[in-house]
Amino acid sequence: MYKLSAVFIGLLIAIMVTFNGILAKNIGDYLSVLIVHIVGLTMISFILVIRKKKIKFKENIPIYLFSAGAIGVFLVFFNNVCFKYLGVSLTLSLGLFGQSVASGIIDHFGLLGMNVNKFQREKLIGFTLILIGIIIMLIY
Asked: Domain residue spans in the chain?
């Protein structure tokens, strides 16, 4: 079930990057990032109200975890910029490759409080195939 959900997330990300990129082409990079996040804030606020959820913060949450929102702003901004010059498929392919490398490093060393999940050499085959695919996309 979770693997199918992850595939669905991938589909949504492709649609989101496309919409964000087209919006940025029409109104500019900075304003589009602002609008995307205002709409996101509005949507999650609406969902919280409908579900009658109260906002509760646990104690001792590391402050750096709250930076994810700022990272999201940069993510949308750079996706919009790359979309204009690379298109959807190359933007997402390069982004997913970066995510794969970063997640492999985080897992291997147990960074950011994650459990250690040592890197297996067999994964290099997958990384190599992904990189070959990206190179082919760059050429053609």
From this structure: 2-139
